[in-house]
């Protein structure tokens, strides 16, 4: 039996969140395309250590549950240059010679964020051992309920058709499909308040 209790992610949860997301994204098509082959597990850990290392945890928006984690950002959020510079070594460790592609994809996706106020769900992952048993749905339900309470739509990029199907079940609709720098397709998806 896999528990689906959802709790706000505290700063002290950083290690657990990094491990969960690195495990969950082992087969992700977009990260597989971006990361050089070899040392994949270490590269994913470096990537998520840099991503989670900023102001992502501790404000109540991001969540953890047994086996799962979701990163959520407030309106207007952008990964600051200062943050990226502070984690430059980790990004190099993660992406190596593919770093220009990683930066380019990130910048292209940031340009596509909605202009209206919204919450941004950047990563959701459930470790392989806990998948298909409602953990991801519980995390999504908690996030969308809070967006509704705040009167804000929720925005995300789906990296596979199967993931997009899960998001559609939670009220997201596809607003565009993009392939920045020739990446595998990413569905830009939005959920209106009460969707
Ligand atoms: C996507 C993910 C967070 C869903 O969490 P979950 O706990 O498995 O989801 P639930 O049990 O609540 O719902 C199952 C649904 O999730 C989606 N899903 C996507 N990949 C899945 C997988 N490998 N195993 C099971 N479900 C998956 C499907 O829509 C599935 O429904 P289906 O069986 O009818 O196709 C999880 O599978 C995961 O971490 N996948 C790898 C990382 C990833 O792709 N993250 C999202 C990037 S946009």
UniProtKB/TrEMBL annotation:
Pfam families: Acetyltransf_7. It comes from the Bacteria. Residues 4-191 form the N-acetyltransferase domain. InterPro entries: Acyl_CoA_acyltransferase, GNAT_dom, Trichothecene_AcTrans. PANTHER family: GNAT FAMILY ACETYLTRANSFERASE, N-ACETYLTRANSFERASE DOMAIN-CONTAINING PROTEIN. This is GNAT family N-acetyltransferase.
């Amino acid at each position: 039996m896999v528990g689906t209790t959802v709790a706000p992610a505290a700063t002290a949860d950083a290690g657990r969140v990094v491990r969960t997301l690195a495990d969950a994204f082992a087969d992700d098509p977009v990260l597989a395309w971006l990361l050089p082959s070899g040392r994949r597990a270490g590269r994913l850990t470096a990537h998520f250590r840099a991503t989670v290392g900023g102001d992502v945890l501790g404000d109540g928006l991001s969540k953890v549950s047994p086996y799962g984690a979701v990163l959520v950002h407030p309106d207007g959020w952008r990964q600051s240059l200062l943050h990226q510079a502070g984690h430059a070594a980790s990004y190099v460790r993660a992406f190596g010679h593919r770093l220009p592609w990683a930066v380019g994809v990130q910048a292209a996706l940031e340009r596509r964020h909605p202009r209206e106020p919204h919450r941004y769900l950047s990563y959701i992952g459930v470790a392989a051992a806990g998948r298909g048993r409602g953990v991801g749905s519980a995390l999504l339900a908690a996030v969308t309920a809070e967006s509704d309470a705040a009167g804000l739509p929720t925005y995300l990029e789906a990296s596979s058709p199967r993931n997009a199907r899960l998001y559609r079940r939670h009220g997201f609709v596809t607003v565009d499909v993009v392939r920045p720098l020739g990446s595998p397709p990413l569905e830009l998806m939005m959920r209106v308040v009460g969707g």
